[in-house]
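WARN retry 2 of 3 for item q-0093 after timeout on previous attempt; input resubmitted unchanged.
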Amino acid sequence: KTTLVDLVVEGVSMILSYRNEYTAILQQNGGNISDLTEKLKNKAVKDPNLTK
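OK item q-0093 returned
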């Protein structure tokens, strides 16, 4: 079971921010999920704290 927890800081929802970011990436790449996945993997490699 997957559970999502939203963090709202100064009225900004982290879940909505990430959704908007992912939507933009998909729109720029013709809806290609593989491109989104690759960008997320690259982001995780650049920030080791994301993979803990």
